[in-house]
Amino acid sequence: MNARLKLFLPLLVFLLMAAVFLVLEKRMGDGSYNPSDLPSALLDKPLPEFQLSRLENAQSPVRKADLLGEPALLNVWATWCIACRAEHPYLNQLAAQGIKIFGVNYKDQRQDALAWLDRLGNPYRFSIFDVDGRLGLDLGVYGAPETFVIDADGVVRYRHVGVMSERVWQQKIAPLGLWPKLAGRKNDV
Questions:
Q1: pTM of the prediction?
Q2: Judging by beta carbons within 10 Å of its beta carbon (0-12, 13-18, 19+), is residue 141 exposed, middle or buried?
Q3: Dihedral angle at the C-alpha atoms of 66, 68, 70, 74, nearest 10 degrees?
Q4: How confident is the model at residue 11 (pLDDT cuts 50, 70, 90)?
Q5: Domain ranges of the chain
Q6: DSSP states of 9-30 as a string?
Q7: Mean pLDDT of 153-168
Q8: CA geometry: angle at 145 spanning 142 and 150, to 5°?
């Protein structure tokens, strides 16, 4: 390879990378690309089978069947997750409105997680203690927070990566029609 070409190769790589980032920035600005809309292999498929312990009681096993019966949110969270702290007040609000929420405490320490819930409130019917991340791996979790909407039969209807908020609820989750009594209540939820 010519010595002059070797000098310009880093510049060409930089220009190519800059072009990719500019295209992504433009698509994010016009709304045609949203990095939190990551595809899920589980969409419209049943939750995977699992058996783990409850965060609140290590002797109490929890299985997929324990999540079934009515629509619910399955929220992946951890004490080391800054964004989880940001979404937590909204999850408490949803739970107070009657939304069934289960937690998946992801790659965390049991005592830290219990203290966190004592301090910030506990919106979860119960939390699944996924210390090794096995359930997270089966769900295709990229990190925390992530929230899965499951129907009464345990089928994943939607996956949200990032902070759960009023905007996400109104624009993405309420239109699914799983909670018809709450679909039109903007400021109450």
A1: 0.78
A2: buried
A3: 80
A4: confident
A5: 51-176
A6: HHHHHHHHHHHHHHHHHHHHHT
A7: 95
A8: 90
pLDDT of 21-46, one tens digit each? Answer: 666 566 555 555 555 555 567 899 99
SS3 of residue 2 by DSSP: coil
Residue 86 has pLDDT above 60, yes or no: yes
Q: Are 88 and 118 in contact (CB under 8 A)?
A: no
CATH 3.40.30.10, applies to 51-176: yes
User: What's the Cα-to-Cα distance from 125 to each of 10, 33, 128, 135, 171, rounded to whole Å?
Assistant: 54, 34, 10, 18, 25
Q: Which of 43, 46, 22, 24 is nearest to 35 (CA)?
A: 24
User: Mind listing the pLDDT tens digit for each residue in 50-80?
Assistant: 999 999 999 999 999 999 999 999 999 999 9
What burial class does residue 146 get, using C-beta atoms within 10 Å of its C-beta: 0-12 exposed, 13-18 middle, 19+ buried? buried
Phi, psi of 105 (to 5 degrees): -80, 110
Residue 101 near residue 77, CB atoms below 8 Å: no
Strand residues in 49-175 grouped as ranges (E): 51-54, 61-63, 72-77, 101-106, 127-130, 146-150, 156-161
